[in-house]
Write a structure and sequence with these properties.
Layout lengths: L2 E4 L2 H22 L1 H12 L1 H19 L3 E4 L24 E2 H5 L1 H5 L17 E6 L5 E6 L17 H35 L3 H9 L10 H21 L15 H37 L1 H16 L2 H18 L7 H19 L2 H14 L3 H8 L4 H37 L11 H8 L11 H28 L5
Antiparallel strand pairs: 1-2, 2-3, 4-5
Helix pairs in contact: 2-17, 3-8, 3-9, 3-17, 6-7, 6-8, 9-10, 9-12, 9-13, 9-15, 9-17, 11-12, 13-15, 15-16, 15-17, 16-17
Length: about 475
């Protein structure tokens, strides 16, 4: 076997979430009211555009959630050649499918900083320069990079033309991919509606006012922008460091793509912890009132009064002590970092449910006074049946919008916690660790700005897409807007 599959706990959670989303989609297709609500989400141009961006981030995260350990090359063991029946040996480094796809970015490590698309290092060094007479002279200059622009050889002056040619190739590929996708989509719509290709193409861009079809025009325009951004990166990345390198010479684009999975795990797994606690306590406090309401209010008021950073820091440090005192639990460093990541998700979830519970308590207090709830109580319907059949469906729009908004906040929270040193494991790449490592680089002369800028831009795009999608979901699922 050329590799040994590795199943991290976070990988199992992510793939279980994918399976749950598949079951949810199947249930939505079989439930007309839910199908109509999600149809309104897809009908929105903002919702379709933000969904396309989120889908791209999720695809990168899933590729980075399939881990394995590569098999080592056969080597002599104990002074003897390894026979055919010897047990295979696997490396201790845990890689993912994303690492395999990004092998050039992962392995082409420079000595230190280099600017985006540069062919030389960012700082001068003493080096020997051969003079025309053959002698060697010591002088300070910017050394050539080992990998960035190495294919140019001695023709370094051809850098501008080479970059321009690769950009044009990327843009050409983007246009071809977009045209193929648009034609395929128009053809599918023409077959489904049994109309001509010209009519379906016109409907893609000019929807009738009464149409409930998805906003295909917004999807195509968003994909056009993504293609125009990604294909030049694909054309330039094999030969250049498109976003530069950091202090140890690692490619910043590779770090950005690896950070996406960490952000998704923080947002999604923490949501799984927050959801049952916040929903259960929130609607129970609003419906039962009395001592149940007083107890739950006391609980989340006390929890909210404790500074969040101090509470999270104390819990993370205690968890770190447990991890450090039990090294035998972990076969690789990746498993150790993964456990700390899940612990951080659990801690964030147990400290961030209070806002959702407070919102649901207020909404449930209002719903419990409506006539159909009081009629159900008069007919002797059990309280838990009323909560599940009448209260919970009418507060789901609040749950959805709160969770998606919390996802954005959790991504930012990870960045802040990693910045102060209580976030993810230092060996795990995340937006927070990138920002933390970049803070000292801003004080250099000349200033190293690209690591911080890249982390900020990609994190901003992820959070913005999540917020826009949350707004559309709120409008689509709000019963008052139906």
């Amino acid at each position: 076997m050329a590799f040994l599959p590795v199943f991290l706990w976070s990988d199992l959670v992510i793939w279980l979430l994918v399976a749950a989303l598949g079951l949810l989609a199947w249930g939505v297709a079989r439930t007309p009211p839910l199908g109509a609500a999600w149809g309104r989400v897809l009908h929105s141009r903002t919702g379709m555009a933000s969904l396309a961006v989120l889908a791209l981030f999720v695809a990168v995260g899933l590729l980075d959630s399939a881990h394995y350990r590569p098999r080592l090359t056969d080597a002599p063991q104990n002074g003897q050649d390894s026979g055919a029946g010897a047990a295979p040996a696997y490396g201790v480094e845990v890689l993912s499918l994303l690492d395999a796809l990004l092998t050039p970015l992962r392995t082409q490590v420079e000595k230190t900083y280099s600017a985006p698309l540069a062919t030389r290092a960012y700082a001068k060094e003493m080096q020997e320069v051969r003079q025309p007479d053959g002698s060697l002279v010591q002088q300070r200059d910017f050394p050539r990079l080992k990998f960035g622009g190495a294919h140019l050889g001695s023709e370094e002056s051809a850098w501008a033309g080479d970059v321009a040619r690769r950009l044009l190739q990327g843009y050409g590929l983007a246009i071809l991919l977009w045209a193929a996708l648009a034609i395929f989509l128009a053809g599918r719509l023409a077959r489904r509606r049994q109309c001509s290709f010209r009519q379906s193409w016109r409907e893609l861009w000019r929807r009738p006012p009464t149409s409930t079809a998805p906003a295909w025009d917004a999807l195509l325009l968003t994909l056009a922008g993504l293609f125009l951004l990604l294909t030049p990166l694909l054309a330039l990345a094999p030969e250049y460091h498109v976003l530069g390198t950091d202090k140890v010479g690692q490619d910043v684009l590779y770090q950005i793509l690896k950070s996406i999975r960490t952000a998704l795990v923080i947002g999604l797994v923490t949501t799984l912890v927050t959801l049952p606690v916040g929903v259960l306590l929130g609607i129970a406090a609003g419906y039962f009132r009395g001592w149940v309401d007083d107890l739950i209010q006391y609980l989340y008021t006390t929890l909210s009064s404790i500074p969040g950073v101090l509470l999270i820091a104390a819990a993370v440090l205690m968890m770190q002590v447990v991890i450090d005192t039990h090294p035998e639990w972990f076969a690789t460093a990746a498993e150790r970092a993964d456990l700390r990541l899940l612990a951080l998700c659990f801690i964030l979830g147990m400290t961030s449910w209070t806002g959702l519970a407070r919102l649901l308590r207020g909404e449930t207090l209002k719903l419990s006074q409506l006539e159909y709830i009081q009629a159900a109580q008069a007919f002797g319907v059990s309280s838990w049946r009323i909560l599940l059949r009448h209260i919970l469906p009418n507060v789901m729009h609040i749950v959805l919008i709160a969770l998606v908004m919390d996802f954005s906040g959790l991504v930012l929270a990870e960045a802040v916690l990693s910045y102060v040193g209580i976030g993810v494991d230092p060996t795990m790449i995340s937006f927070g660790t990138m920002i933390n490592n970049a803070r000292m680089e801003l004080a250099r002369e000349p200033m190293v700005w690209w690591s911080l800028a890249a982390a900020f831009v990609f994190m901003f795009i992820l959070v913005l897409a999540a917020n826009l999608f949350a707004d559309v979901v709120r409008d689509a699922f709000d019963p008052r807007a139906a």
